[in-house]
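Researcher: Please translate sequence to structure tokens.
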Amino acid sequence: MIKKIIFLDIDGTLTEPGSNVPPESAMDVVRRARAKGNLVFLCTGRNFDMLRPVYELGFDGAIGSGGGYIVYGDEVLFDCPMTEEQRLLSLNSLKENGVFRTVECKDGSYTDEGFKEFLEEHASEGGNSELLRWRKQIEESLNIRPMSEYGGEPVYKIVFMSPSPDYLEEPKKLLSEDFHFVVQEPDKYGITNGELVNRKFDKGKAVELVCRHFNIDIDNSYGFGDSMNDLEMIETVGHSTVMENGSAALKGIADFVCPAVTDDGLATAFLKLGII
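Model: Translation complete:
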């Protein structure tokens, strides 16, 4: 049997956004896939602290922080935080330009005071799934603490929320050489949100690294996602699937669109694709 390797985004793919509890149908097919000798990795923008509760449910490995931190069991395969210079320049330039920040370290996340209130004020305006996603994650206390508690730990990724795309112009001039500004689909109310991700890694590079590590041909890799921060993974894997609840742009380039996470989509996809 040719071994397959499966990469699963968490929020909006394996679970409802912000949740640590996948549908039992999803965990059933994950267990069945692993029992056949396949590998199943989480592949998420969450840092390791935030993904750990899901990881402990039973996965072979995890790609965290959008590709910046990769583990197989207890073995670290890749670890790439920002440099100290990058960290300070990123945090200062976003703050000085009025952009809200959530910094993600390996073992904790910290958000600007007032961030939750900002999300609550705009969440009812609809249109931007990431607004609702981060609001729910904060409310469910996925270890996102006030920025006042941040002690300068290494940062892997920064999530930004800007009242206007104009506020990002200066940070982009300063930071674009080293970082991707991964912006979610535009919101008609002008709220701009996304992620500042190191150009040294992304989910696609992480997929390639893990496949090389296990000597698995990329043609035998399967990726599942829902939002634009899954783009590189979807473009890299041999077989790409996007959830029906996902980004319209991402669905447009996927090999397969499966039912939403709330409709047992992963179970449907694993069966249809012959993974189990």
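Researcher: Any highlights?
Model: The mean pLDDT is 90.
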